[in-house]
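Same chain as my last thread, 179 residues:
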Amino acid sequence: WRFERLRALLLEGSLGFAFWLAACLLAACTAAAVFSLPQGVRYAAFLAGAAAFLYGTYRFYLKPLSALEPFGILRAAGERHPSVREYLRPAWELLRSGAGPNVSSELAEEHIRRTERRLTGLPGIPVFPLRAPKGSFKRLSVVAAVWGLGLPWLKDGASLHRVLAPWKDIHPGYAKVTL
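reply #2:
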């Protein structure tokens, strides 16, 4: 279940991060193209973009990994299969630390056997299927459509270069040829 959960979290994170990155980059490029931002403001936009990139990495990749701890996986599996919800956590604790001083070993073994029987009775479908979260393709389609509509204004790539490399002072329509 851990690998299934990791795979599902990485898919969700990748789609969310792609949306986040594309939206931030589109906003910065549009501002650079429309307002012809001075170099100092482009430096600030670049630093804000770097901070947004780091935040997106944390938000969409690192933070969801906390759901990989055993009780988080068991809780999510219990939500998916309510018939075993009450059995999973106690069985996990009994397997990891054994029966406590107030619990007989026969009772603990019987609980583990019942849990295993219930688990074998579950359908063979993955607990954490690999599918995109609701609305993710819609959000990505909106960003792609807006990028497509904005391409005529961003076609020469100058605003993209001005945002991603503010230390290079590129002026649209200005070229100096040296022979």
